[in-house]
Amino acid sequence: MAMQSLVFLLVAINYFTVGSTAVPLPGNGVLQPSLNYQRYRQHEYKKYLPYYQWWYYWIRDNNNDRHYAIAYGTTLCKHTDTKVCMYDGAAVGFSVVDNKRNFRMQKYEFYDRNAFSVEGIFNYKIHANTNRTIHEILPIDDNTFRISGNMSKDTIDNVWFCDGCPKDLEIQWDLTLSRIYGWYAQDIFEEPDRVLEGVIMWDTYSHTAEVEGFVKIKGEEFTITKDAGFRAYGDSNWGEIMPSSPPKQKPNAKYAWGWYYVNIPSNNQSQEFSIIAGTGLTYADALLKTMDARFSDIRLDATTHIELRSVTVWNITLDSCNDGKLHRFDVERSNWVNVTDSFGNATIPLRQLVTMESDNYLITMDFKSLETNYNRLLFAFMDYVFSDFEGLGVSTDVVIIEKVTGKVLRNETVKSGGVEYGYRFDINVPPVPSKYL
Ligand SMILES: *[C@@H]1O[C@H](CO)[C@@H](O)[C@H](O)[C@H]1NC(C)=O
Ligand SMILES: *[C@@H]1O[C@H](CO)[C@@H](O)[C@H](O)[C@H]1NC(C)=O
Ligand SMILES: *[C@@H]1O[C@H](CO)[C@@H](O)[C@H](O)[C@H]1NC(C)=O
Ligand SMILES: *[C@@H]1O[C@H](CO)[C@@H](O)[C@H](O)[C@H]1NC(C)=O
Ligand SMILES: *[C@@H]1O[C@H](CO)[C@@H](O)[C@H](O)[C@H]1NC(C)=O
Ligand SMILES: *[C@@H]1O[C@H](CO)[C@@H](O)[C@H](O)[C@H]1NC(C)=O
Ligand SMILES: *[C@@H]1O[C@H](CO)[C@@H](O)[C@H](O)[C@H]1NC(C)=O
């Protein structure tokens, strides 16, 4: 749908209807999206505006309640119309949440834009001026991705910070993901997004995958094997604006994004269970004002898939569901706590309850996190740094009810949930390294 027709459609609907309305979105999301959906899109967006994109991975060791999160990204603003360009280049972040050992850390490196390239569809590389590859995402086929990285003594000049670790901590990883389920909800929004405001887009192309390889921290090697003891998640985000409150309004906690993930691995892949959900409320522009978006893919097993999509602009909700109607898609946040870390203060909800309902299913995920489950992942853009509080290995009650029969299909408490609260908190971060590659 072209941008003009979308806007005219919205104006027409708004004119002829009173109060809130739901309008069906055509079709459904893209199941098992091919590599092209994961592509680097900078050249497709406006040359005169800043642009960001990142690819994020979470490797989960179920037996040890140990989690690794790896983000490869780029944030570009030089040579654009913006006057506020502090963060231009590429960043790679590596974090650990070990709930058993009660240990958390994260290390970020920041590189000049010339040290970064994307070849082919999304073969992201950070290379030194010798062309030695330091960090890489290597897509092999639609379902297979190899991710590697090497934070060594040779890259110490590129360390932005190490939070909970010494700056010279050496970390290496080399992991191959084999996708089980993936979903891309926003296919039909790509064109309007490009033409309009470049609101953050989200592609959950591998929400559960088998994974094998290793992670090495200060010489200690952790072997990751391709069995149900380990799983990996992978997604990508891009856009021209990050979620934010309306201008001149006091910051408000509701203009946040949320990410909700529960996966129950199975040795028999046709019985793998996985739910990914994401929500976000942001100010877009003077025309669209605020946008509220909610997306979820629910795989009860390899053959039973429920998906929900909803986007609200003005008072109009555009939605779709592959199981009749979208009856409910809500997030309730509670148990707010003030946290103070090396970046400052923030107030986050430790409990988030997601309720989703279609014609035949009622799904709830009740995330009960502890402060120790979180790292504050940082996403720099233009002249600010967005905080993404990411809880990994969170105790979560999952209940799936088949409405017609009243049958409880799942009622489990998993300790491997993933939950986020992302918001543009005031933050103090060290400056990016000035003497970098
Ligand atoms: C690095 O690789 C690029 C692209 O393949 C090439 O143009 C450049 O000459 C190489 N630089 C060095 C120092 O080898
Ligand atoms: C990481 O980089 C160091 C220093 O350049 C090198 O000696 C080492 O072999 C690399 N390790 C891996 C796993 O790539
Ligand atoms: C895997 O699960 C499917 C669906 O429940 C079942 O039909 C199949 O027999 C199972 N395969 C094995 C090897 O157990
Ligand atoms: C949305 O609807 C509410 C009440 O129905 C109304 O007060 C508000 O002005 C409407 N907002 C927009 C942007 O149309
Ligand atoms: C968090 O801090 C704010 C501002 O200092 C305060 O108003 C609020 O009561 C605190 N909340 C909690 C849960 O401690
Ligand atoms: C964080 O909050 C504490 C207690 O409310 C306050 O003393 C401190 O100044 C705050 N720090 C920052 C960086 O805002
Ligand atoms: C799920 O299990 C819990 C604990 O066993 C129980 O209290 C609850 O009633 C169950 N919920 C449903 C919908 O069966």
TrEMBL record:
SUPFAM superfamilies: AttH-like (SSF159245)
Signal peptide: 1-22
Keyword field: Signal
Name of the protein in its database record: AttH domain-containing protein
UniProt organism field: Adineta ricciae
